[in-house]
Amino acid sequence: MSQRQLKLNAFLMTAGHHVAAWRHPQARADGGIQFEHFKQIAQTAERAKFDAVFFADSAAVWGAGAEQEAQSRSAQADHFEPITLLSALSAVTDHIGLIATVTTTYNEPYHLARKFASLDHLSGGRAGWNLVTSANAAEAFNFSREAHLAHADRYNRAEEFIDVVTGLWDSWDDDAFVRDKQSGRFFKPDAVHRLDHQGKHFSVRGPLNVARPVQGYPVIVQAGSSEPGKELAARTAEVIFTAQQTLADAQAFYRDVKGRLARYGRTPDQLKILPGVFPVVGRTREEAQEKYQALQDLIQPAVGLALLSGMLGGADLSAYPLDGPLPDLPESNGGKSRQSLLVELARRDNLSIRELYLRIAGARGHLTLVGSAVDVADQLQEWFENDAADGFNVMPPTLPGGLDDFIELVLPELRKRGLFRTEYEGHTLRESLGLARPVNRYTHKVVA
């Protein structure tokens, strides 16, 4: 039996994940709208045999609730729409998975099903959908709403949304399209299935006007860690992106979510849990610390405060001293799990507001690792081998340099320990992740 190995995604953000990455001398400040920038990075990640590249998204300017001065200093105001970008990247890559975030809160299921089915065909079976419910309240104002949907309503909508999407992906049998020029028959008349969905949020007739995706369904990813988020993931997700600060917290989350699968007739190997990790890697610990401090020195207080306020669901911290404690906050209508994580971090480590925004300026609540290749590999191995993770969502501090450092320094160490692949296991993202191809609900035929 072959050794179990890590799954690794490259989580890409414009110039990098650190809030001040775009100001770094080696970062590309205009990277968010430069295809060559992302092409180079995606091809680098593919040569390194990463499972996938992943793009987050929001349907509003990041930090739109911040003061104009702070907002003007953020690099997240200008970037590609991810499905468009991944469609272009599918033409210049061959094996690496292509995962995009698309919210269920301000989209329609038919649009989403059609776009991801198209991406899966364009890429030969490498698409993945990161299902989120919008945490950015500013999105509401771009979709004819005067207020953001309540957290519970967002998840209620998401539960129905995903059922409609997967139903649409099952519109066609895998062998439906015969395209027989001799007989003149384009598809088998009994191989198409109309959804006829009628629910609380959606009325969708179908069928989808794209053939069943290469993978059956694109890989379904979920990023919520609230109670409704974990339950939705247990029922529907095949990969979870999560933010965890400690080994104990990660183990508890891992046990919790994997333990919910049985009630939906699922087994633990049908869900991969990938915490985010922000690695700053040097050839020595001292070099890594110098790299990290150089980024921290670029943080402007207004930007750090705006980042923290946004991560806390839009909390107004302007009336409180930066070097004072984080005040008690009302429950957020944004991302509940992230607000809880940051408040717990501040209380646990007795952090001031300034210390808290400095702590999250790179990883935004995910695990931060600063050290040598051995240091970083040791921690990844510890989490992996102690039921805290099936792999990681790697968040490079800068791009392309931060990813290059991880590939050059950490991956050889992981491979030396037998913890990461040297070649892809197949062509599709499902094959890379070790996930089965879903059966069509109408035919119940398993296709290899």
Automatic annotation (TrEMBL):
| Keyword Amino-acid biosynthesis applies | no
- Name the coiled-coil region(s): none
Spell out the InterPro entries in the cross-references: Diverse_substr_monoxygenases, Luciferase-like_dom, Luciferase-like_sf, NTA_MOA
The Luciferase-like domain, residue ranges: 18-385
**Pfam families (alphabetical):** Bac_luciferase
User: What is a GO molecular function of this protein?
Assistant: monooxygenase activity
UniProt keyword annotations, A-Z: Flavoprotein, FMN, Monooxygenase, Oxidoreductase
- Give the superkingdom in one word: Bacteria
Q: Which family does it belong to?
A: Belongs to the NtaA/SnaA/DszA monooxygenase family.
Instruction: Please report the name of this protein according to its UniProt entry.
Output: Monooxygenase
Source species of the chain: Silvimonas amylolytica
Q: What is the lineage of its organism?
A: Bacteria, Pseudomonadati, Pseudomonadota, Betaproteobacteria, Neisseriales
